[in-house]
Every structure is written in C-alpha cells, then in structure tokens.
Amino acid sequence: APAAAEAGGDDGPAVAEGAPTGATPVEPTAPTELTEPAGEAPTAADALEAAPDVDEVSDGDPV
After folding, report:
1. What residue segments make up the domains of the chain, in order of their start?
2. What is the DSSP string of the chain?
C-alpha cells in the first residue's frame, strides 16, 4: 500500500511536467523569432564591428 502511495506521488509530478512540456514547444517559437531579427544584422554586425574597434582602440591607447 505505501509503495502505491509513493508511486502515485511520482505520477502526480510527472503529470505536472506534461503540462509545462506542452508549453515548452511554444517557448522556442518566440525566442526563435527574436533570434532571427537580432542575429540578422545587429548581433552579427555589432560583434564584428566591436572586434575591429577594440583592436584599433588598443593600438591607439599604447600610441
């Protein structure tokens, strides 16, 4: 009997996880949309520009 109660407890949480799991697929959809516009130019361009800028600034500092 006690074992059954424990098993039931495990099943309870498992069911709760099932609900969030269904929402999980929806979450990736939103981040994906934001990633596309952010990665198209702002992120990539800023990252590439930031790298050369840092090198130039470093050279300017010692000079």
Report:
1. 2-60
2. -HHHHHHHHHHHHHHHHHHHHHHHHHHHHHHHHHHHHHHHTHHHHHHHHHHHHHHHHHHHTT-
pLDDT along the chain (63 residues), means of 10: 50 51 50 52 62 57 59
**pTM as predicted:** 0.15
By residue count, the chain amounts to 63
d(CA 44, CA 33): 16
Token pair, residue 29, equals: 């959809």
